[in-house]
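name: query_chain
kind: protein
chains: 1
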Amino acid sequence: DPTSLEPIEFNTIWLWSQPGVHTVSVGAARPSDMDQPLAAAQKLLTPHGPLAMAAAEARLRSAYLQEVGDEDWQQNLPDCFETRTGVGVCYIVWLHGLVKAWGLLEYAKDRYKMLVSNLEEWDERQSWEVNQAAWSWAPGNAYRPDCVWRIREELAGRPVQDVNRVVRCLKEAHAWLTASLPEHMVAGCQPAYDLQRGKVPFPDRK
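structure:
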């Protein structure tokens, strides 16, 4: 259907629509994984592709504004390299928004577990530099309840609009991504897109 987009088609056309982007890297595990990026390239050259992408983007934006609000309160949040605790404040707030607005729970959990693993290796007896060097390819620590006072202190030292809201998001994200979402948030939810195509394994997982 030239007027509709699969998620990968949307992602590919959206990327190509951004200023300065001319190449999209496709992580293909089998030849058929190129089908949708190639379809996106074809749709990009028609009037329908950009229009369908813009419509989908508007729906995503509307859902985000309804559930999270505008991003003004997220400005000037520190990343993991700017905090003494190593907590990736802006990254965790971003994951919180993905779950709350679009229900990307499994996506967020997979990424947050790497921050949890980093935190498990963190040793307060070592310097920040030594601890940081032990991070995985995904840098940063998960939320640290034991250091919430320090997180508040660091946020208060920056032009952050609403410190209490940021801390509340960190706590919620940690609870959601290390345990379970409240029942009312998962009722009726199911995986929206299966890159595995059911039980067919990727070639490198055989």
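note: The two ends are 33 Å apart (CA to CA).
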